[in-house]
Amino acid sequence: MTNTSWKVEEGQLLNLQKDGSWVQLSASEVWSLVFGSRSNTDATVSPIDVLPQFEFSRFPAEMAIELSGEAPSNIRVTLVGVGGSNRAPLVTPDTDQVFIGNTWYPIQIDNYVESLAAIGSKGIVIGQAISVGQLIWLRTHKADLGIELFDLLQDENPADIHAPEAMDAKVWGLQADLYPYQRDGVHYLRLIADQGLGCILGDEMGLGKTIQVITLMLAEKAAGRGSSLVVTPATLLENWRRELSLFSPSLAVKVHAGPDRAGIASRLAGFDVIVTSYDTAVRDEPLLSAMSWNLLALDEAQNIKNPDAQRTLAVKGIPRRVSLAITGTPVENRLVDLWSLSDFALPGLLGDRQSFERLFSDTDDDASDLAPIVAPILLRRRVREVARDLPERIDVSQPISMSRRMAEHYEQTRQAIIAEYGKSASLVALQRLRMFCTHPLLVGADQADPVEEMPKYQRLLELLEEIFSRDEKCLIFTSYTGMTDIFLNDLPKRFSGKFFNFIDGRVPVPDRQTVVDDFSAAPGGALFLNPKAAGVGLNITAANHVIHYNPEWNPALEDQASARAYRRKQQRPVTVHQFFFVDSVEEVVVGRLGLKRGLAENAATGHAGDATASDLMQALSISPLSKIGVLE
Fold first, then answer.
1. DSSP codes joined into one string, 35-90
2. Does 3.40.50.300 match the CATH number of domain 393-630?
3. What pLDDT digit, counting tens, does each position of 401-430 carry?
4. Domain 158-389: which topology?
């Protein structure tokens, strides 16, 4: 025994020097002492001679990356040495040796210089927390890094992340109570926003995606960050305006649409939220790109599923800190749909489109391979998963603005009624306006395509796309047989393979149950119903969506119609959609429905179906042209 000795401390092999200090010799020096001539070091005693409890490997361990922690807020990257089927963390990132269990291994660190440099170029610091964006980069580039990746992340599904009890959205100014899953959703969105990244909010229809995004906007304002831009289909502009006004009155909101929209960026300054449509975003992309937005939210983001579309290129070019894609159908037909959404949420992190399409084809296996890559940026909850947090019936108001051309035709009809009837106008006279709002084709309009210049029909198609994408079914109520005929003539062409049929006064009572049975057996589709002819006596629990395409004066009539699906044997929450045009006779009808329902809840009164003289006068006095500045 000489004056040299060895010890293992905190995973390091240390040698006692002549001056009494303990140092770590290089892996080549240790290897030479154990397996070589021992001539390249001052040490004369091999560690194998004094540490019999340890083994020494002649062959090097491989270096690898290990991901651990919980996404999205606590993701850590460590370097590990791999020997056989075992591995152990490296004491320092630049070490050239490692103990794996009781075995010492050298590491040929020169083999990993380029890999570590590539990782460092993305701002990834070994041993420190990384962002979701850096996580996805590691996952998508692992095949090219030249270093193995061990993925041990826990709870990386955003749907498993829960908000802290202390989170109180009302502190930020929210005028509503969130369901527990909505609080969790807002918490996840805040985690993403705090990292300056983006994500896809892919909750199913009826779960309140809009209110979660509005709450995020309030939280961002409370954090002192800048303005938000919402891009949405034109059919939902009014819905966003109303929801923002209702739930977040402290936010200054401007709808950027129509001929009176801002022409210079300074006219958009000072607002907390700007809401615009996809078509306007395309036209005004230079103007919108002149501002630096804190949050850019795309509603019905499946509108950018085509990477080559003009609207896709336009919105992706708008500068923003946080990108939020809102859609109930994140993948509709092809995996490239998801690439396009991800390319908006986290630009470039799934690679370029050509590389992506080489790696992922439209197969179940490739979809499974893609799922864990996009999982950290995709918040997807289904109604059945959060059903315990939901009421049995979800009522969704769908206020819709007319197009400018439609509003002008409505105004012509309104003026003609006033000229003919004056103040003595009756429900019969208002019938023309109600039919116009149901569809201009019902009052003699000349158009080949029922979707042309008809925002309500456009919104119906958007809704049906999401319902049918989940192989679910809906009941669509309309008072007019002519509208049913339009549906039956047009929708089967747009949604091939889906079930479509109807029940109204033209269908004999004995035959109606057969229609219901056929509808129940179909994998997905719609049944068109007259609320009077089919509003009672039928159980149609195969449908979990009800759409009132045109509102009825009588709330009891509508409620009885909704109850066809919302019944005791229904196993899922039923979502009831109420369509109506704002600043029209339909808004008066909907307002009266709400008033009479309120009376019924507080007193034992009946539901008379006749409109009052006051209702009629109000219906004739309003016009969609009163908001001419925001008509698309």
1. HS-STTSS--S-HHHH-TT-EE-SSPBEEEEEEEEETTTEEEEEEEEEETTEEEE-
2. yes
3. 998 889 999 999 888 888 887 766 667 778
4. Rossmann fold (3.40.50)
